[in-house]
Amino acid sequence: MTPPDNAATQTELTDLANKLRDLAFALDELSSVGPARKLKLAENGERLTDWWHARIFRDYWEFRAEDLPYFIEQIEEREDQDDKLVALTMALHLYVQAGRPAVELRALRRKVKGYSELEAVMKERLRPPKLSEAERKWKKQESEYKRRRRDREKRDAEIYEQNRQWLIENHTQMLDNREAAKGSVWRCQVNLHSEMRKSAPDRNKWAYSNWRDLEVTYGSAVAQSFRDSMVAYWREYQPTLRSEGLENPNSVPHAIVLGLSGIAIESSETIDWPSGLTKAEADRAVRYALWEMNGFPAWLVSLSKAFPEIVHDRFAGEIEWEITTSSNEVDPNYLLSDLLWHGHDLQIGLPRTIIDILQRRLPKNYRSLENALLIVVRDEMITDNEISIFASDVMEKTSDFKTKSFLVALLVSVNPDQGIERLHGVLRDLDDEELRTEFCMNFAVQLLGGRRSGGKFRENYKNAQHLRQLYFVLHENIKRKDDIERAGKGVYSPGLRDDAQDARNTVFKLLSEIPGKETYLALKEIAENYPEIETRAWMMTHAVGRAIQDSDLSAWQPNDVKDFSREAEVLPSDHRQLFDLACSRLVDLKDDLENGDTSIADILVNATKETQLRNFVGGWLRDRAKSRYVVPQEDELADAKRPDLRFLTTGFDGPVPTEVKIADRWSGPKLFERVENQLCNDYLRDKRSSNGIFLLLRNGEQSSWSHPVSGDNLDFSELCAALQAYAQGLIASRLDIEAVKVVGIDLTLRSIPVRKSRRRKAP
To answer: What does the H/E/C string look like for 75-97?
Structure first.
């Protein structure tokens, strides 16, 4: 048996060599090979013009006669003269190998025609002079190299066959696991595992279960013994974990590789595999899982469901070790990293355990802290409030500049009100402008992402109110005048400043994409306060563009198109559409009462109570609802207030309150007060209702109303216009109200006038 050592080192090198050999042609290695050698030749006044300069790399690439057309084309396509010569010399070499075909010779002559240096080289190579001493020496070395290579290949083939025969005769030796507990393995096990790995579709893991692939070369008996030896091996050897002390955690013993493969085979071939394990075996399997490369074994999820406490406790111990022992100098790239990228399906309560560990001690390594918190943030079972409390508490325990910026970003992502307030507080405590800039740069990149990635936290801040606040604080501390301009200045590696600039600019982009009045007002404020005065007009176009987009109708469904073709209107699909429909109905009512040939204004003008008119208006609207809305009267609200009418519909919850008044029964100032306090401040308080209607009806008892500010006397039409203008002023800066419509109906316009009696003259 062999002592414990690194796994499959020689096999990996061989695979690497094979890959390089396969990739060489596609990567154009020949013409660009050896930049260092090219530089050295240039320093000595020499040129790299012949393919033989790359002879030392021949183990990693191989060109054959069928590659000749490619190199003939490269003679013409390459711009550099030396590259043309390299392509030509290789083409001539392959031309000789191919038996000097006439077609390729004519093609070569066409490609070099007009290039004197190329023509001279081709003439010399096709009719070579007597070999020089150096060339004869090179020829001899080349022959010797080919002979040694043939000898080596022959010797390797003989050794391989000897080993294969030995295995066929002695395969049961692999079943002897008496030394397995010490980590010793049979060399034949290592070799067979390497053979198995070669035929595996995925070589990014240590564990492989395709043992039957060995039957073709070694027979079923050898393959079966190898399979049984690995399945037995994992129960004998117990892996050591990093928390238990390892000299070199990056060195993976062969014992680990064989054990992982044994579990992979057993779990794939056994139905409900975890149910047959003891607790000790489950714990040992978890130890193996922590050694797997690029994530976790496929069987770990089912094991964690059968033994959640065992998996949790073993993982928790390694996580605490990683957090408490990590250093600033070296990223551990251990369990936290694997959990972040590959642990989505492990439902064993680790995020809350991580919170408990971090509350006791924060890691010194920033990457470990980031990985730990991202695992917590990703878990939907952890509430925003829990994360907010954690971030606030831990923030007080650290003085590390970068860590605090990370925690502030985390707090903003789940509790933007508290987080932005804390951000302002931290910035106020920093006297140095450069420190404030650096803090904001780290904060912005963590919250919003940078040039290569987006934000990693939750997104509760992605609304107009908080993005507006973030815009101003980031532009104040990450100033545009200090930006690094990279365009047209060559290749570069983005740094913190580059990422922070992009993160800062992302805020405006996110804000511009949010529909609604609040966004419009935020964009308008940004434009009005933009530091570069000449750019303010251009910035205002974004606010105007947002308003134009918001004014567009939402997309219609096929049924909406049918409804519109029949009725010239559609079923409302949102609160604004219901408001527009309600306004349209009331305008129809106004036209009917003021201008209709069958108007009943003459009857309504005698109504002295608002309830009478409210009942009529409600009934008229109900009769014309066409199943698009209902209009209940005086729905009682939480504070016992009762809107006269409320438009409601199915599909969404967004009532449109409507207040009905007989204008003649109210003074001018009182009507203005009712628009503000009753409609806007009472009936539009609910966040579901952001649009309301103020309906006025005139019966002729009063001819003018006093304006509460100017004192002017207003007729009915002027009163309605003044009330509309007053309402627009009230809601201009209010984020919770989108629109208020004042509709005035003058019942006197269509009622029968009172006529004086006249005596008929005698004929």
So the answer is: HHHCCCHHHHHHHHHHHHHHHHH
pLDDT at 53: 65
Query: Nearest 5°: phi and psi at 405?
Result: -65, -35
> In whole angstroms, what is the distance from residue 264 CA to residue 271 CA?
13
Helix, strand, or coil here: 440? Answer: helix
The yes or no reply on domain 571-746 and CATH 3.40.1010 is no
pTM, 2 dp: 0.69
* Residue listed under structure tokens 């014309």: 624
For 677, residues 6+ apart whose C-beta sits below 8 A from its C-beta are none
The per-residue pLDDT of the chain, averaged, comes to 86
pLDDT, tens digit (0-9, with 9 covering 90-100), for 645-669:
999 998 889 999 999 999 999 999 9
The answer to whether 334 touches 293, Cβ cutoff 8 Å, is no
Q: What was the pLDDT predicted at 33?
A: 45
Between CA 347 and CA 378 the distance in angstroms is 12
How many whole angstroms separate alpha carbon 91 and alpha carbon 50? 11
Domains in the chain: boundaries: 29-126, 515-551, 571-746
Q: Map residue 445 onto helix, strand or coil.
A: helix
Report the distance separating Cα 138 and Cα 148, nearest Å. 15
Q: Is the pLDDT of residue 372 over 90?
A: yes
Q: Is 556 left (phi over 0), alpha (psi -120 to 50) or beta?
A: beta
What distance in Å separates the CA atoms of residue 406 and residue 373, rounded to the nearest whole number?
10
| Orientation of helix 401-414 relative to helix 366-378, angle to 10° | 10
Residue 695's CB is within 10 A of a number of other CB atoms, namely: 22
The partner residues of 633 in beta bridges, in order of sequence, read 645
Name which of 548, 582, 447 is nearest 506 in CA terms.
447
- Judged by DSSP in three states, 480 sits in helix
Q: Strand, coil or helix: what is 429?
A: helix
What is the pairing mode between strands 713-714 and 739-746?
unpaired
- Binned at pLDDT 50, 70 and 90, residue 451 comes out as confident
Instruction: Characterise 107 by phi-psi region: left (phi > 0), alpha (psi -120 to 50), beta (else).
Output: alpha
First and final C-alpha spacing in the chain: 145
Dihedral over alpha carbons 709, 711, 715, 717 (to 10 degrees): -20
Provide the CA 390 distance to its chain's centre, in angstroms.
25
User: Using 50, 70 and 90 to split pLDDT, how confident is the model at 697?
Assistant: very high
Phi, psi of 693 (to 5 degrees): -130, 135
Helix H, strand E, coil C: the string for 19-33 is HHHHHCCCCCHHHHC
* Amino acid in position 631: V
Residue 101 in this model has a pLDDT that exceeds 80: yes
Write down the pLDDT at residue 62: 67
What are φ and ψ of residue 3, in 5° steps?
A: -70, 165
Quote the CA–CA distance of 386 and 368 in Å, as a whole number: 20
